[in-house]
Every structure is written in structure tokens, then in C-alpha cells.
């Protein structure tokens, strides 16, 4: 029974990866490629506390959120990215982004989209293999 549960967990992970994969492929096929300019950079700090050692430690990890300005048709858009890079882009630098035509405030960097498609494809495949291994062990 435990093996079957592991198989179901793996299928759940494969399903989630497949949903993200399909969304990225659709964005890549139907999206609008535009040139966007970085107009602001905000620092986001995360505090992580570890209780594994005798002494509690805190570690801050920083990431950066970039506000991008770009033009879709006649509309001038400003939106924050969701990538949270660990190195900030320079204000005034330009980057190619792919926007969703139905919701142009959602975008992905063109340089990242192919890598993310490959990542989710591999994740889905590994999760399916993991599930099949546990399901067939159960029989």
C-alpha cells in the first residue's frame, strides 16, 4: 500500500509539472515578443531560520524584483517580473520578454523560457518514471 501511495505522489508531481509545461509552451507559441526596459529594481529579503544546530542561526537571502516598461500596441505597460533573480539588472537595460496577449502584465524573459520548458519536461518525465517504478513494485 505504501508503494502505491508513493506512485500516486509521483503522478501528482508529474501532473503539476505538465500543467506548468503546457502553460509555458502555449506562452512561447502564442506570446508577443517585445523589448522591455528595466525602470526600477526592488530588493526582496528572505529570512531563513535553522534549528538543526544547537544555536539558532539566521540567514538572509536576497533576490531582486524588476519593474519592466514595455509597449503592446498603443498601450504602455509597467509590470514586475516574477523571476526574482539573485543579481539585479541595471536600470535602463533592455531585455526581450514574451507577453501573454490576453494578459500582457504576465510575461517571461525570452532567455529563460526555453530553459524552463526543458526543466518542466524533465521533471514530468522523471516523476512519471518514479511513479511507474513504485506502482509496478506494488504488483
Structural description of this entry:
- This protein has 139 residues and is α+β, with helices and mostly antiparallel strands.
- Helix content is 42%, strand content 36%.
- The protein has two helices and five strands; from the N terminus they run αβββββα.
- Strand 2 and strand 3 form a beta hairpin.
- The longest helix has 29 residues.
- It is flat, with a radius of gyration of 20 Å.
Keywords:
alpha+beta, 5 strands, 42% helix, 2 helices, five-stranded antiparallel beta sheet, 139 residues
Topology at a glance:
Elements lengths: L1 H29 L1 E19 L6 E16 L2 E6 L13 E6 L7 E3 H29 L1
Compact description:
With 139 residues, the protein is α+β, with helices and mostly antiparallel strands. The protein has helices spanning 2-30, 110-138; strands at 32-50, 57-72, 75-80, 94-99, 107-109.
Question: Would you report the number of β strands?
Answer: 5
- Please describe the biggest sheet, giving its number of strands, its sense, and whether it closes into a barrel: 5 strands, antiparallel
Shape descriptor reads flat
CA(first)-CA(last) distance: 10 Å
Please, how many helices? 2
| Helix content estimate | 40-55%
Widest sheet, order of strands:
3-2-1-4-5
Low-confidence residue ranges:
none
Amino acid at each position: 500500500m505504501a508503494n502505491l501511495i508513493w506512485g500516486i505522489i509521483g503522478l501528482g508531481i508529474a501532473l503539476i509539472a505538465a500543467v506548468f509545461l503546457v502553460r509555458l509552451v502555449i506562452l512561447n507559441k502564442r506570446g508577443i515578443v517585445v523589448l522591455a526596459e528595466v525602470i526600477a529594481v526592488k530588493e526582496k529579503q528572505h529570512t531563513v531560520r535553522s534549528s538543526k544546530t544547537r544555536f539558532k542561526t539566521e540567514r538572509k537571502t536576497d533576490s531582486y524584483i524588476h519593474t519592466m516598461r514595455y509597449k503592446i500596441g498603443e498601450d504602455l505597460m509597467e509590470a514586475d517580473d516574477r523571476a526574482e533573480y539573485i543579481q539585479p539588472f541595471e536600470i535602463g537595460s533592455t531585455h526581450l520578454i514574451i507577453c501573454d496577449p490576453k494578459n500582457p502584465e504576465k510575461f517571461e524573459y525570452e532567455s529563460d523560457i526555453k530553459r524552463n520548458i526543458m526543466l518542466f519536461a524533465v521533471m514530468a518525465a522523471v516523476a512519471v518514471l518514479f511513479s511507474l517504478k513504485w506502482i509496478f513494485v506494488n504488483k
